Every structure is written in structure tokens, then in C-alpha cells.
């Protein structure tokens, strides 16, 4: 009896974990953008204002979601290893020297899908359930 | 003389407050940003004042038990993106000035032109990047501490220069390198206590100021090195050396060795920061040299912290030492005793201290942080450290404790 319960419990946990794994934050560009992969440091350079170009030399415009949204925190934690406070501190070092402004912020995944789809230089992140054929998921390694 | 541009900048800022602040990339846009610190500091030494910059005369200790004048400031910045390659920045900072008054002053006002995405050119009042954290040394929110360690940052209190700045960014493998050269001049008025124990001000003029600095960033590591050279004059002290010159060749030699009249002044600084996310450590080392009464100094600090959610406890150790002579036999001629004593008091007035600071930063909201910091400073070699306005009852060479609270914000 206890072992069966344990099995059920484990199965439940497993399916929960896998369903959470499905709802992933992915990095996207427009389908018109040939970009397929970026390294973590290339992505960090684009999002932290150290470069305004993709590795192929084309202009890059990074886009953020709302600073207080959970996806913002997840993106910066998983891909850049930084907390929202660290990101804010980083930008306060650049803004007050006139060396840059943080990425433009869009409200929600839908707005992100539409904006990135319409701009070949845009790069954004969203929950992968919202991906459609107008977008290309960028592999980050 | 600075009143007019300040007024114009303020009017500009006020006008733009009412405008929608667009952040479009390709259309002209204006953005208004601000930063500030509301800070109080208490010193347990009541016979002198602790100040955070040699440009301020009033501080904590003698003037006030708890002083809000040491760390508090407000900065407003207007950035105009005129075309994708042309932009302009005006930053006005209100803080305690050399006369003890809180007044706005233009920190930066320049026009930036991106010749290529990697190469940019600025003209106007530009950043003086002498130290690793120079560019945002006044933005409390951007640093872990209540104030940047004085053992390094006090040596060059100025953070802007009138002239031009060339910045070149390049990639070396996976690292980003930013090379910057700044050329220009700056004038700053500073307060001091004269030989009659009265309050006086003097003007330091830096000319032909060249600073070359390089920052290399790779992942979590950032390394900085800079070299600066100026021709420095503090004419207010020339009369003292003119008296020395009346004593003939021996007096001339002393005047040429110790005066600050178009003298070469050099600063070398090195720094590194490692910040993998949960913790950070950073350190800087700086050396100043000149053949003046300002003596040759070496200062350094090491600071580290650990991030526990919204709380960041941090610890800093810092040290500043003079490595040139702090006394001179002077003329040692009959009747020169008072003059020799004045020169020696200038030399001994240069600070030497070590300090340990323990603090806690609390990021309680998305653009605000509260910091509490305890500093224990030991004045070495009989110096007054960074204390000013010392009273007859003050005993140099001792130790002083500070307790500071600060609220930092950005918008």
C-alpha cells in the first residue's frame, strides 16, 4: 500500500515536473531573421547593452517584458544568471553615463509575438506556448 | 559663472517633464532619468567633521551630530536621442558645494556622435573615468556601498572634465574591451582651513588633462586600468612659496619642489570585479604622484558581498598611505621657523588611514535600496584622515567610528 502510494506520488510529481518543463521561456527572433543560435555570452551582450549587433553584423534590438512580470525574472535568471535587482543596477551604471537605455519593454507574450514577428532586427523572449510560424526559436548554448 | 547653464538645464528638465518620454529607436526622443540618495551619517568624533569629498566643508561630528549633508544628493538627467547616431546628455547634480550650500551643478553636458557602432566621440563636459566606478560614483543605487571607498575615490574628487572623449569598443574572442581617452580641463573650488584656523577656499586648475582607460569584460569578470596626467595649479598657495623664494636659491629649491604651479600630476589606477550573481568581490588600487606638497599616495580597497534574496551584506577593507616624505627640514635659517612649520603642516595635513566597513544593502523595492553601514577608520602617521574643520580639541592619529543610513533611488 505505501509503496503504491509512493509510486502514484512519484508519477504525479513526474508529470507535474514535465508539464512545468514544457512551459519554457524561449528566445525568439522573426522568421525573416536567419539567426539560429547564440551563445549565452552573446545573448548577455545584446541584453546588457554591450553590443547593438547580432554576431553576423546585423543590427539587434532586444526587447523586454515588464520588469515585475515572472517571465522577466525567469529569463534573466535562466539565461543571464542575474536577478532583476542586478539588472537594474547594471542599467543604472549605464543610463547615468549616457551609454545606453535598457531594452524597450512590451506588455505580455502576445505583444512580444506581434512585435518580434514584424521586426527583423528584434529579439525577445516568451513562454513557448505562444510560438507561431512567424517566429524562429533561437538555440542558446 | 555657472549659474546660467544650470538655469537653462533646469528649465529644459522642467519643460520635458510634461512631455511623453518615448523610447523609440529611430525617431528623436527624450528621456528623463534621475537618481538620488537621502543619507544621514553619525561620527563619534565631535572635534572635527567627516565629509565624503574634499570639495565639501560641512559634515558629521562637529557641525552636526547626525549629518544629512555628507551623502545626500539628487541627480537629474536628460538624454536626447536626436538621430540613431547623435545624442546629447545633460546631467545636473544637486549636492553640498564648496561653500556648504546645496546647489545644482552641471555634472555632464555633452554631445555624443557614434562614428561607427564601435567608435564614439563626445564633446562638452564629459566623464572623467579615472577609477573603475567613476562614471556612476554619485549614483548610490549602482554601487553596493553608502559611498565609494574614500581611500581611492577621495584622491580625485572631480568626475567630469570639459573637453572631448573618444571611446572604442572591440571584441577580443568572447571578451568586450572598451578603450577610452579623455582630454580637457577642469576647475574646482575646494574648502580648507588656513593657518589662522579660518575657513578659506582655493581653486585647483587642471590643464592638458589626459586620461586613458581600458575596461575588459568577460562573463562575470571585469578588469580596469587607467593612466591620467594633468598639469595642476593651485595658485592660492603660491604666496607661501613666494616667501620661500625671498630666501634665495635654497628657498627657490623648496618652492620648486613643493608648490602647485603648473605641476605634472599623475594617477595610475587598476581595478577588477568578479560578480557571478550570488556574491561579488571587487578591488581597486590607485597611485598619485607629483612634485608638490600634495605628497604621493597609494590607496587600495577590497570589498565583497553575498546576496541573500533582497539582502546584501558586504565588507570592505581599505588603506591609503603616503610614500613620499611628510616632513621637510625646510630652510632652517634664523627667522624661517614659522614658514617651515607652515610647509610641514601642509605635508602633514595629507591623509593616511585604513578602514574597515561593514554594511547591509536591502533592495526592498524595484528601484530603491536602503543601506546601513558601519565604518571604523584608523588615522595613521598622526594624520587627520579625511576629517576637516578640526577644532583645537582634536587629537590627530586616532580612530573614528561612523554609522550611516542611506536611501538610494533611481527613476
UniProtKB/TrEMBL annotation, chain A:
Top-level taxon: Bacteria
This protein's name: Phosphate ABC transporter substrate-binding protein
Signal among keywords: yes
Keywords: Signal
Signal peptide start-end: 1-23
Organism: Billgrantia antri
Automatic annotation (TrEMBL), chain B:
Cited Gene3D superfamilies: Porin
Domain Porin span(s) in chain numbering: 13-380
Secretion signal, residue range per the UniProt entry: 1-22
Lineage top rank: taxon: Bacteria
Pfam families cross-referenced by the UniProt entry: Porin_4 (PF13609)
Keyword terms: Signal
InterPro entries xref list: Gram_neg_porin_domain, Porin_dom_sf
SUPFAM superfamilies per the UniProt record, alphabetical: Porins
Protein's recorded name: Porin
Source organism (scientific name): Billgrantia antri
Amino acid at each position: 500500500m505505501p509503496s503504491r502510494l509512493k509510486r502514484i506520488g512519484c508519477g504525479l510529481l513526474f508529470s507535474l515536473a514535465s508539464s512545468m518543463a514544457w512551459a519554457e521561456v524561449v528566445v525568439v527572433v522573426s522568421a525573416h531573421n536567419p539567426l539560429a543560435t547564440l551563445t549565452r555570452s552573446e545573448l548577455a551582450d545584446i541584453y546588457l547593452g554591450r553590443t547593438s549587433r547580432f554576431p553576423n553584423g546585423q543590427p539587434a534590438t532586444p526587447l523586454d517584458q515588464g520588469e515585475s512580470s515572472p517571465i522577466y525574472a525567469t529569463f534573466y535568471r535562466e539565461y543571464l544568471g542575474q536577478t532583476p535587482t542586478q539588472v537594474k543596477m547594471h542599467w543604472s551604471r549605464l543610463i547615468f553615463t549616457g551609454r545606453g537605455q535598457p531594452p524597450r519593454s512590451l506588455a505580455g507574450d502576445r505583444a512580444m509575438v506581434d512585435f518580434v514577428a514584424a521586426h527583423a532586427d528584434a529579439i525577445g523572449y516568451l513562454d513557448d506556448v505562444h510560438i507561431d510560424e512567424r517566429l524562429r526559436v533561437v538555440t542558446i548554448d | 559663472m555657472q549659474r546660467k547653464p544650470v538655469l537653462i538645464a533646469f528649465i529644459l528638465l522642467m519643460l520635458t517633464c510634461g512631455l511623453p518620454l518615448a523610447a523609440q529607436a529611430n525617431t528623436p526622443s527624450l528621456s528623463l532619468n534621475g537618481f538620488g540618495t537621502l543619507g544621514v551619517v553619525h561620527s563619534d568624533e565631535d572635534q572635527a567633521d567627516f565629509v565624503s569629498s574634499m570639495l565639501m566643508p560641512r559634515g558629521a561630528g562637529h557641525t552636526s551630530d547626525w549629518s544629512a549633508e555628507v551623502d545626500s544628493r539628487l541627480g537629474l538627467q536628460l538624454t536626447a536621442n536626436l538621430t540613431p547616431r547623435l545624442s546629447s546628455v545633460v546631467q545636473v547634480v544637486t549636492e553640498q558645494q564648496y561653500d556648504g550650500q546645496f546647489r545644482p551643478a552641471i555634472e555632464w553636458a555633452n554631445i555624443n556622435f557614434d562614428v561607427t557602432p564601435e567608435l564614439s566621440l563626445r564633446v562638452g563636459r564629459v566623464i572623467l573615468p579615472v577609477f573603475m566606478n567613476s562614471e556612476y560614483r554619485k549614483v548610490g543605487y549602482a554601487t553596493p556601498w553608502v559611498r565609494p571607498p574614500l581611500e581611492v575615490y577621495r584622491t580625485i574628487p572631480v568626475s567630469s572634465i570639459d573637453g572631448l572623449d573618444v571611446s572604442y569598443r572591440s571584441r577580443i574572442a568572447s571578451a568586450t574591451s572598451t578603450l577610452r581617452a579623455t582630454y580637457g580641463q577642469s576647475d574646482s573650488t575646494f574648502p580648507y582651513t588656513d593657518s589662522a584656523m579660518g575657513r578659506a577656499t582655493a581653486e585647483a586648475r587642471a590643464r592638458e588633462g589626459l586620461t586613458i582607460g581600458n575596461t575588459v569584460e568577460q562573463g562575470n569578470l571585469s578588469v580596469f586600468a587607467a593612466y591620467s596626467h594633468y598639469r595642476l595649479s593651485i595658485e592660492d598657495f603660491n604666496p607661501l612659496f613666494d616667501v620661500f623664494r625671498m630666501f634665495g636659491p635654497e628657498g627657490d629649491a623648496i618652492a620648486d619642489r613643493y608648490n602647485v604651479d603648473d605641476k605634472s600630476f599623475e594617477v595610475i589606477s587598476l581595478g577588477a570585479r568578479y560578480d557571478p550573481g550570488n556574491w561579488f568581490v571587487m578591488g581597486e588600487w590607485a597611485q598619485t604622484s607629483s612634485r608638490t606638497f600634495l605628497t604621493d599616495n597609494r590607496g587600495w580597497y577590497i570589498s565583497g558581498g553575498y546576496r541573500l534574496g533582497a539582502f546584501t551584506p558586504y565588507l570592505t577593507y581599505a588603506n591609503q598611505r603616503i610614500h613620499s616624505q611628510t616632513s621637510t627640514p625646510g630652510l632652517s635659517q634664523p627667522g624661517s621657523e614659522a614658514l617651515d612649520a607652515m610647509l610641514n603642516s601642509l605635508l602633514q595635513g595629507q591623509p593616511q588611514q585604513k578602514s574597515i566597513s561593514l554594511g547591509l544593502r536591502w533592495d526592498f523595492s524595484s528601484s530603491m535600496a536602503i543601506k546601513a553601514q558601519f565604518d571604523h577608520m584608523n588615522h595613521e602617521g598622526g594624520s587627520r584622515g579625511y576629517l576637516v574643520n578640526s577644532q583645537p580639541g582634536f587629537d590627530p592619529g586616532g580612530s573614528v567610528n561612523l554609522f550611516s543610513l542611506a536611501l538610494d533611488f533611481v527613476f
